[in-house]
Amino acid sequence: MGLTSALTTALTGLAAAETQIDVIGNNLANSQTVGFKSSNVVFATQFLQTLSLGAAPTANNGGTNPRQYGLGVQVAEIAANHNQGTIEISSSPSDLAIQGDGFFIVEGADGERLYSRNGIFKLNSDAELVNSTGQRLLGYGIDEQFRLDSSSLVPLSVPLGTESVAKATENVTFEGSLTPEGDLATVSQVIESVKLGTAQVPQPDASGISIGTAPLSDSTSITTDISGVGTLAAGTYQYRVALVDSSGNESTVSSPISATVGTGGAISLGDLPNDPSGDYPNVNIYRTGPNGTEFFKLGSATAGGTFNDNGSTALSADAVSDGTLTGNYTYMVTYSRPGETESRPSVLIGPQNVVNGRITLSDFPTPPVPGVDDTFPAFTEINIYRNLSGDQNNFYLVDTVAPGDVYTDSRSDAEIADLTVAENQLIDLDGPTINSSTLLTSVLKRDGLTYQNAFELGTLSYSGRKGGRALGTKEFEVTDTSTIQDFIDFVEAASGIQTLQIDSQNPIVKSENQIAGESGELVPGGYIDDGTLRFVSNTGELNALEIDLAAFRIKTTDGGVATPNLGFGTIQEAVGQSAASDFIVYDSLGVPINVRVTATLESRTDEQTVYRWYADSPENQPLSGNSVTVGTGLLRFDGNGSFISATNDRIAIERNGIPSLSPLQFNLDFDLVSGLATQNATLAATRQDGSEPGVLNSYVVGEDGNIRGVFSNGVTRDLGQVQLARFANPVGLEARGLNLFAKGVNTGLPVQGAPGENGIGSVIGGALELSNTDIGKDLIELVLASTQYRGNSRVITTSQQLLDELLNLKR
């Protein structure tokens, strides 16, 4: 029995050695397998045979030990060695290594969760991270705002080239030097349009007015009869006659005719002049005294009739007016009413050439009767204006007539051109001017003697300039109800003129008024001044507003394009040290937004320098209006030129009408701006932390397991987080091959967490954990195992020889 048991015992030794060689072979075979964990074979004795349990010491015996021998060896455990493998740097950002305890969690077939230390991951066609055998790496994903969603484990993905992201600006940093030298910003730029009229007051229609030379009061056909009896004193009397129109105006006075009578005589004038047109129904008779030379009005008679002078009518004090006109004359007429502003002039009437004569005007238009909604007065008169023979450009008031009158002009140039006479006046070619309620569609701009509508229905776009830099384009809808005040408010807002008193402790300064003939102060903003549109900028050179010829453009309702030219010109130049900086910020959608910050030297004292900053943005889109102003405040610097403080340094840009988050708010950081005395003030935005949309083009994995995407615009965002699992007894894991383990019955539940949590190791991106096989140790153990194998083989050989000897004894 002893030799037989020796054979079986040796056989267990052979089996154990074979197992160890198998394990060592597997270790050596996987010495280059990433994340491989080597194993050790643990042996245990097998059964025992007890020959004696021994005896305790007695008085007669000192005691004996047990007598036992074993019956072989068995493999008690093949224990995986989960010691840390060597970390090797990789060239792939998707390669991961675990430093410390823990396993990657991957998704096996049918959603089974498996665990692995193999960190070779790559992207599949769905941009998911998978290992070499196709299992998906699990972790926490993200929501639409790139925030980790820790509700469940999901396959991690890195959508290179497809995901886009933008970042809203939160901070803008400025640098530069705002010098205390130079002029204080106390004067604003003031611009003014040409005078604008209104079509709401009707213009006389002169198309039907008749003009011509007045008929001659011809005396050659007049007959004289001295046969009558009267009271005339003896002597020679001279007469002159003049045709008289319906308004009482005389035509050219005739040449004298004479008649001599004795004492008690009478003179009858027959066949007085007559005007076939009927415009001159009467004739005025002028006469001298006996043997006199001065003519005074004696009386009137019907044109073509007879006048009897029997001495019963005394001469009046009205001397004959024999003035005549010689030249080329043109007329204009206006509607008027005492105490009211007259209308704009009619078109030109004439010209009429006359030599030593008079000019007749008739068929004047009847002023329209104002309706309920009309704003013009009920005109009752017509003013007649005329140029001078030597001045074709200026028109002077000649007279005022009723609408149905006929007028004969006999007033000399000298009479009407003397403006020192209260009744004389030049014509106002502009006529009634605009007011705040004038409809835009009624605004007229005069070009010489032509009146044109300045605005048309449609979309008006405005692109002014401020401080020599272009403002953004803003639009205004011109409708039937749009008024001049609406237009002023629009231009004021779109030009970035700061009028609001945002900081009551530091109100926006007014401007000195250096305009000739004016005094006081100018308030920044827009208003009407004597029929012109006047805009007063904020003080400082770089706040100077300019509106050039192409600043306004209207896309009319019929698809045409009009360019209203309101003739803006500068009437006061801006003064004041200033600096400006244009830069771009980004809203939440990555939309670029232009912003300009202008700083002007507001004051300086013995202790500090104070600048005011103005912020404008043409992309500001408030709920109502078109304001481009987005903020203002003060900057203070001490005596060392160091920045002290800024007020209201957070600005907000409204983003209504587009899906961006509104308002876009960000801080202005002036900490790096100095107040040193440089030659010129300078200001520049050197940094801002927003970005335009960018495409995901790379990623990295941090030690905390976060996968951070790097976008083409430089923005980084979390794309997910790798989750690891730790087991209380990792040796109890069930190997599934392919570097995968499954939870075993003796592992305990997996403890899940991010790298670094719950005793879980960290993750190293761009690195791999190599096999922890110890080749040297395994080779030594291989020698020991082979020795063990050979030793047990010798036991079998020896037992066989002894058995053979025993059998030989039997024969």
From TrEMBL:
Q: Which residues form the signal peptide?
A: none
Kindly provide the name given to this protein in its UniProt entry: Flagellar hook protein FlgE
According to the entry, every stretch annotated as the Flagellar hook protein FlgE/F/G-like D1 domain falls at 97-155
Q: Which species expresses this protein natively? A: Rubripirellula lacrimiformis
Q: Where in the cell is it found?
A: Bacterial flagellum basal body
Gene Ontology CC entries for this record: bacterial-type flagellum basal body; bacterial-type flagellum hook; cytosol
- Keywords annotated in UniProt: Bacterial flagellum, Cell projection, Cilium, Flagellum
BP terms from Gene Ontology: bacterial-type flagellum-dependent swarming motility
Q: Where is the Flagellar basal-body/hook protein C-terminal domain?
A: 766-809
Q: Which residues form the Flagellar basal body rod protein N-terminal domain?
A: 7-37
Q: Which SUPFAM superfamilies match?
A: Flagellar hook protein flgE
